[in-house]
Amino acid sequence: MNNRRHFLVKSASALTMTFIVPSLLSSNAQAKKPLDQKVTDKKSWGMHIDVDKCVDGCTACVDACNEENGLTGFGRPETDSQWIRKIKIKDKTTEKITTMPMLCQHCENPPCCDVCPTGASFKRVDGIVMVNQHTCIGCRYCMMACPFKARSFVHETLTTQNTNAPRGKGCVESCNLCVNKIDHGSDTTACEDACSKAGHNAITFGDLKDSNSKVRLAIESNSPRRLRDDLNLKQKVFYSNI
Amino acid sequence: MSDYTLNKLKAPRLLYWGIFLFLGFLIVIGLASSSYMEHEGHYVTGMNNQIVWGLPHIFAVTLIVIASGVLNIASMSSAFNKKLYKPLAPLSALFAIAFLIAGLIILVLDLGRPDRLIVAMTTYNFKSIFAWNIFLYSGFFVILAVYIWSMLDFNVTRFSSLVGKIAFGWRIILTTGTGSIFGFLVAREAYSTAVLAPLFIVMSLLYGTAVFYLLLRVISRLQSINIPDEITKNIRRLMIIFLLANIYFLILYHITNLYISKQIAVESFILLNGGGYTTMFWLGQVGLGLVIPLLYEMTNDEGRSFGLTITSLMVLVGGFFAVAVIIIGGQAFPLNIFPDHIILESSFYDNVIHSYTPSIFEFGLGVGGTSLALIIILILITNLKFIPVKK
After folding, report:
1. A97 touches chain B (CB under 8 A)
2. What ipTM does this complex have?
3. Which CATH number fits domain B4-241+358-390: 1.10.10, 3.30.420, 3.90.550, 1.20.1630?
4. Are the beta carbons of B124 and A118 separated by less than 8 Å?
5. Long-range pairs of B261-267 with CB within 8 A, sequence gap ≥ 24
6. Which of B47, B119, B121 to mutate to test the interface with A (most CBs of A within 10 A)?
7. Chain B contacts of A77, Cβ < 8 Å?
8. Interval B297-319: pLDDT, tens
């Protein structure tokens, strides 16, 4: 009886090792390009935001970002993470009121990366500024250094996470331009998709090095500016009609 | 005090154990606070995504600044060859090590991931002043240990002057590094100025001297010995010089900011309409910490020790407020993301003065860390010969 049970267990294990495990491994290996390629500087990701097209009261971009990255709050707005937020501003001279999304500006010279003691905050060669969740020690110096208040600290235990956006209690995080989607071959972000779906098209994302990309065309047809240009951080997020 | 020998502290046994257990209790409170904060996450503290550095950082920065400054007495002896201070030099270096350890422990225990300390010790971004500070702190620790050894071991005592001079130079660089943690932050208007580095240096000189005198008074009480009048008078003179230097750099810092148009808003916030921060600045930092002690000591010609004790306490409390105004006040003022605009609405509090109410756990961690410095001192002066007594 025992022998038969052992035989069945061993057979099942052998079958699992022979057929199921390799199929799981191969599904990983078959991921879309460029996931299996090194990130290069052939692309430079950036974003254009036309604030005239951004609609007051619409939070489609914020909702999409929260869903994409699994940012479920704890009902504590002062400590809950916000990777993208809506801001309403009034021009001091013209008194024009505009509403717009604020997110990590993906600086060419990012102060967060300069101050990070362990190099956990880093800029990829394609311009995406992000946090290595394995080496962030949670000192929050990057949050002190960011001129745009783009970063959040994970203040409490996370019970649910999206596999495409790993997060960690005690670490700092911010918008990474949906890096997981990009590395799987996409050229759009969740916020851009949502804005477009809502019919506003205020957000345009793409490769700044490609002269035919929609983001380049948007930048060239408008006269966008960078926020706090005086700091010479050369952000990759541009705003038009502020 | 030319004819002296170094001895262990001989405090009454009951008193020693009373102090030891009290400090030990506070350290346990600190550890419990820290572990609760780490287990639950930082939402249980008063810190949030607006005020990212809070009470633990006020404690830590104050202690690190004190650690550098408390070495004054040893520097006077070794770097400036003032023989009067030579008997007190080992004690001064010991205090420096103890306060440095305490400040760093608080910083580490407040990290989001203190378990990754090894990452901080092995993975460096050399562009970060924070990373440089890790080197400066660990280097200071080693130099101080060698310095104490060179002062206490007769076989190597000939090197003590040289090591003392290195320690003096190192502590100036170290406090420059501490000030630069804030000075290098271009995003925040209250910081982003090189004046913060010398301001931190003079703060360290002042608070360090005050702490040294206070501890010396406590030890002299425990040991039933008198502090020579000459020492008290000299420390009083030093305090006056450091108070004046502090006032000078504080005025320079604020005048510079007031001169730059874009900094006027943050200056008005600290100096005029910042509510609690304005009160802390004028009553705590300026009044209690600088002006009253200066006025008192200017008239304390006889160098009365009781007066100097009170002055030192006031300087210390004022110093705590000074660091609080710098750290919390600087963050409470919202970032100027849109210089040409007024922010009307934001879900991330971009348009309001950020609020901060420290939690009991942060206070527990700070007090526990400070107690750690004191217990290190107590244990070492009881078991090793640090206290100068007349032969």
Report:
1. yes
2. 0.94
3. 1.20.1630
4. yes
5. B262/B189, B262/B336, B262/B339, B263/B189, B265/B189, B265/B333, B265/B336, B266/B189, B266/B190, B266/B333
6. B119
7. 347
8. 999 877 688 999 999 999 999 99
